[in-house]
Amino acid sequence: MDTLLDFIKKYYYWLLFIILEVISMIILFQNNSYQGSVWFTSANTVAGTINGWYTEVISYIQLKDVNKQLTSENIYLQKQVADLRRALDETLTETTPNDKVIADSLKGFKLIPASVVSNSLYKENNYIIIDKGEVDGIKTDMGVVGGGGIVGIVYLTGPHYSLVMPTININSNISCRVRHSNYFGYLQWSGGSVNHAFLNDIPHYARVKIGDYVETSGYSSVFPSGLFVGKVTKISNAPDGISLQLNVNLGTDFSRLKDVNVIYNTCKPETDTLRVRFNRAGL
Amino acid sequence: MKQVFWTIGILTTQILILNHIQIYGFGTPLACVLPILLFPLDSPRWQILLSGFVIGLIEDIFINTPGVTAATFTLIAMIQPHLLKAVSSRDNEDKATIPSAQNLGWASYVKYILSACFILSVVFFTLESFSFFNYIKYLLSIASTWLMTAFFILAIESVRNSKA
């Protein structure tokens, strides 16, 4: 008995080492594919707040650049408005239905503005943390868009922060189509450059050109249709040999992502209920 | 007590500055391992192990790698006394002194840091790559994290050394 106690006393640290490693492994495997608790990610309130401070300082430093960019954008937009107004005046004399068309396309969608407090670019399971959570009405499976185009889908929510799975995550899968054609496929990312993703499952007979715009298809009820995703830069055969694979240059610059909007589809509960009923009916 | 302040200081630097450094998207310097490497030879093993685990877990929460850094730092804490023993050439060395370039000599200290950082990078990326494996990215990440971590730790040491 004494020998055993001596042995434990002498080598107790091995036991501690094994216990700590086992705890680490449990945390690792439970959280590996984002399935785990939000507390072990930076979407928890403490880490979110600290990362928020960091982002505030950085945004402050970058304000000058942002201002310049906004000013030039403003000038460009003002010019565009003037041009469009002139064109509109020339072509239409009666009351235009345009306002109604725009309102219709966003009908059923509300935008919740949010700021990015932390994001990763160098992993396969990239993530983005935004400073809005359940309290602000964020729920999982909501779409997130930025100035450059779509950003991703809300994956986990905390009370004040949420974790977004961006398009540059190997598990991301968003239904998209090539603008002005009805061919649609799935936008996927396979690691590497954060500016490029692939649009898969486009049929061979689809007439797609380099430079075509890729936009959301609107089939998933997460995003409304027609939101800009990126531009086609290369067309090649998919590894399965039966479809095309398009290289898409993403519109969103993930390395400089700051302000985003979360899209709240007010019709989603209704469409989800319909889907559940359909599944239950076994049709 | 001084050590606790050091640890908090380095963790803050890690979270606010080093976590945002990514060379071509591959590696991030993990200099917050430094407090573990600074334990004197006669420190109780449980103290080193627990510090490793806790520092690792805090870093994990900030870089969203749950469990990976905790497991890596615990392992580093386990082998730290052996690494230190291997590089300290003088047997009559005072076991209570904190390992530094001054007591070990620069050559031994660099060897100590480089070997510890190498093991750290290899273990970290091996654990992290469980979900997805890309051979080239794996090697590049190990190399960049290894060198950057060692670089930052040696930079901190040279500042400490010039003050002493």
What does this structure look like?
The complex is a heterodimer of chains A (283) and B (164). By secondary structure, chain A is an alpha+beta fold. Helix content of chain A is 35%, strand content 28%. Chain A has a domain at 2-32. Chain B has one domain (2-82, 94-163). Chain B has helices spanning 2-16, 34-37, 45-63, 68-87, 101-104, 106-128, 135-163. The longest helix of chain B is centred in the last third of the chain and has 29 residues, at 135-163. Chain B has 164 residues and is mainly alpha-helical.
Question: Which tags fit this structure?
Answer:
heterodimer, A: 283 residues, alpha+beta, 6-stranded antiparallel barrel, 35% helix, globular, B: 164 residues, mainly alpha, 7 helices
User: N-to-C terminal Cα separation of chain A, in Å?
Assistant: 69 Å
Query: What is the helix fraction of residues of chain A, given as a range?
Result: 25-40%
* Quantity of strands of chain A, as a count: 12
Quaternary form: heterodimer
**Could you state the order of secondary-structure elements of chain A as H and E?**
HHHHEEEEEEEEEEEEH
**Overall 3D shape of chain B:** globular
- The string of secondary-structure elements of chain B, in order, is HHHHHHH
Shape of chain A: globular
Uncertain segments of chain B are: none
> Proportion of β residues of chain A?
25-35%
Indicate the low-confidence ranges of chain A by residue numbers. Answer: 94-99
What is the gyration radius of chain A calculated from CA atoms? 24 Å
Largest sheet of chain A: 6 strands, antiparallel, barrel
DSSP helix fraction of chain B = 55-70%
Helix vs. strand class of chain A: alpha+beta
| Tally of separate helices of chain A | 5
Structural class of chain B: mainly alpha
Largest sheet of chain B: none
Average of per-residue pLDDT values of chain A:
80
